[in-house]
Amino acid sequence: MTATPWPTEIRLTKDRRTLVVTFEDGESHELAAEYLRVESPSAEVQGHSPAERKTVPGKRDVTIVAVEPVGNYAVRLTFDDLHSSGIFGWGYLQKLGRERETIWGEYLAALEAKGLSRDARR
C-alpha cells in the first residue's frame, strides 16, 4: 500500500489556466484548467460506472475561478463554466500529473471518435 501523497503547494497561475501542484517529495505538476475540467472526478463527468463516463467537449478556453480546500484531503475547483462538483483528492491530482500523456491522449481520441471538438460552439 502506498502512502497518500501530500501537497506542499497548490497554486493557480495568474491567467487562471494552470494549477501547479507540488508534493512533499518534490514531484510537481502543472495541470491545465481544460484538462482538469474534462477529467473532473464528479459524477457529472465520470458517471457512476465506466459505461456512463462523459466525453466533455468545448472546454479549450475554460479557466479556474476558485480553489477551495475540502478538509485536509482535497480541493474543490470551480471553473468559469460554473462546474464545481468535482472534489480533487491529492492522489487523483498526482495521477493526473503522472499519467497526463496517456489520459490526455485517450480524451483526444474520444473527442475525435465522437466528432466533438475542444472548442466551444459559437
Automatic annotation (TrEMBL):
Keywords assigned by UniProt, alphabetized: Iron, Metal-binding
Pfam families the UniProt entry points to: GBBH-like_N
Organism: Methyloraptor flagellatus
Span of domain Gamma-butyrobetaine hydroxylase-like N-terminal: 10-93
InterPro entries, sorted: GBBH-like_N, GBBH-like_N_sf
Protein name (record): DUF971 domain-containing protein
GO molecular function, one term: metal ion binding
This protein's record includes keyword Metal-binding: yes
Domain of life from the UniProt record: Bacteria
Lineage: Bacteria, Pseudomonadati, Pseudomonadota, Alphaproteobacteria, Hyphomicrobiales
